Amino acid sequence: MSDNNSQVMIEAKGLSKFYGSFVAIKDISFSIPSGQIVAFLGPNGAGKSTTMKIISGFLSASEGEASIAGHDIRTDRLEASRKLGYLPENGPLYDGMTPLELLTFFGEVRGIVGAKLDNRIEAIIDECAISQVKEKPIGKLSRGYRQRVGLAQALLHDPETLIMDEPTAGLDPNQIRDFRSNIRRLGQTKTILISTHILQEVEAIAERVLLVNEGRLVFDGKPSELMLDGSLESKFHELTRGEKSSIVAEGGKS
Question: Of 82, 119, 159, 194, which is least packed with CB atoms within 10 Å of its CB?
Fold first, then answer.
């Protein structure tokens, strides 16, 4: 659990993204201090992926700013990327490579070489439990192992922050349980922002919830606060029921 004096590791200030007259996200602001595991919750098409791509530097904002560990993702992207591990919903995996080849490639791209790279790859293969498949083509791996390889890639340079977009999508119940266990363990040393539309994910791993609907942030607080007046499911429905909601929004998709 973080205290109020912790360093801000992930920050969004007034983020908006427009595609012509279409509003994907509008005026999203939040800050995440060191050591928190935060769930970025919302229905499909709410703007979660758009926000996370902007924070990670893979998409430019129409308005607003984003930073990682105090480094602006636009003007100081290289330094920000050293502090960030990013696991998008799909990729970046190359089916013709083995996990060992993939990790070697990404390590060299990041400037990790020689014995340091060998030692780091060995450690991350063990940490993500992919030793049994490290020399098997990624295209032949199960969804669960592919997610583990993706996580290994995101953790290879030992970043202080980790952003993951729908990391348990498509996994079976046992794989989901294992992945959540990994996230809780990683949260002991890293700041984590994980997007999801699965309510059980929030209850299982998060100490804080950012709930987005139709491109706007509609709740920021503890899971227990979200459930004060009922179940998490009923509150989620109340805050994300579209035109019947008391929340005024301009609409958006991820």
Answer: 119
Q: Which residue has the tokens 């996200």?
A: 25
Contact (Cβ atoms closer than 8 angstroms) between residue 236 and residue 212: no
DSSP the chain: ---TTSPEEEEEEEEEEEETTEEEEEEEEEEEETT-EEEEE--TTSSHHHHHHHHHTSS--SEEEEEETTEETTTSHHHHHHTEEEE-SS-S--TTS-HHHHHHHHHHHTT--HHHHHHHHHHHHHHTT-GGGTTS-GGGS-HHHHHHHHHHHHHTT--SEEEEESTTTT--HHHHHHHHHHHHHHTTTSEEEEEES-HHHHHHH-SEEEEEETTEEEEEE-HHHHTTTS-HHHHHHHHS-GGGSS--------
For the segment 154-173, what is each residue's pLDDT rounded down to a tens digit? 999 999 999 999 888 888 88
For residue 138, pLDDT over 60 is answered with yes
For residue 152, is it within any domain?
Answer: no
pTM of the full structure: 0.86
For residue 65, the domain's CATH number is: 3.40.50.300
Structural domain containing residue 38? 1-83+197-254
Domain total of the chain: 1
Within-domain flag for 216: yes
Report if residue 123 sits inside a domain.
no
